[in-house]
Amino acid sequence: MKVYQYRVANIATASGTTSQQSLNVIGGLCRQVYIIANTATTIFKVNVQDESNLKIMDYPSHTGILNDIGMAIPMAGKYTINITNASQDDIFNILIAVEE
């Protein structure tokens, strides 16, 4: 089993939003979405879109951290991770893990 990990550190939001595009995912099952704000009290939403701008994951508000490990969503290609509606501008770290 191989696990592809897309990691981005120190991503800043401006006006409560930021987005990052993953490298090309060969194909597999998404097993984890982990996003953490630098400040534990920051409230934010997250969605993940495929290359056609279809939201394949759409998370409600979280405070400080989002750690979704209970999934098996098929993925292939490039994905955009959007952090929106942040209660304050903050620094975020992102990890997306895909089992190939």
Structural class: mainly beta
Q: Which outline best applies?
A: globular
Order of helices and strands: EEEEEEEEE
Number of helical runs?
0
Sequence stretches where pLDDT stays below 50 over 5 or more residues: none
The residue fraction in helices comes out at under 10%
Mean pLDDT: 95
Q: What fraction of the residues are assigned to beta strands by DSSP? A: over 45%
Give the tally of β-strands: 9
Radius of gyration: 13 Å
Biggest sheet statistics: 5 strands, antiparallel
CA(first)-CA(last) distance: 7 Å
Q: Keyphrases for this structure?
A:
five-stranded antiparallel sheet; mainly beta; single chain; 66% strand; 9 strands; 100 residues
Provide an overview of this structure:
- The chain is mainly β and 100 residues long.
- Helix content is 0%, strand content 66%.
- It contains no helices and nine strands.
- The chain has strands spanning 3-12, 18-21, 25-37, 43-49, 55-63, 65-68, 73-77, 80-84, 91-99.
- The strands form two sheets. Strands 1, 3, 6, 7 and 9 form a five-stranded antiparallel β-sheet that branches.
- Strand 4 (43-49) and strand 5 form a beta hairpin.
- It starts with a strand and ends with a strand.
